[in-house]
Amino acid sequence: MPDDTTNTCRCEYCKTPFPTTDRLALHQGVEHEAQLTADERAAFEDAYDAEQEALGLFRLKALLALVLVYFGFLMVYGFVT
C-alpha cells in the first residue's frame, strides 16, 4: 500500500518501505510467500516476469558491449603490430 507521507509502499507484513509497487510485490513474493493472497501472488508473478525480461535485455546488451570492446582491442592490436 502506498504511504501517504513519503511516496513509498510499505509491506503489510514487515513494514519495510519500497520505492515502487513492483519492488514491494517482489519482496512479498520472496519473503512472505506463504502469507500472500491471490492478488498479491499475481502481482508478484507479473513483477517477476517483467524483472526477468529486463535482466535478459541487460545481459544481451552487456554481452554486446564486451564483444565490441574485445574486437576493438583486437583491431588496435592488429594495427599496432
From TrEMBL:
Residues 9-32 form the C2H2-type domain. GO terms for molecular function: DNA binding. InterPro entries: Znf_C2H2_type (IPR013087). The chain crosses the membrane at residues 62-80. Keywords: DNA-binding, Membrane, Transmembrane, Transmembrane helix. This is DNA-binding protein.
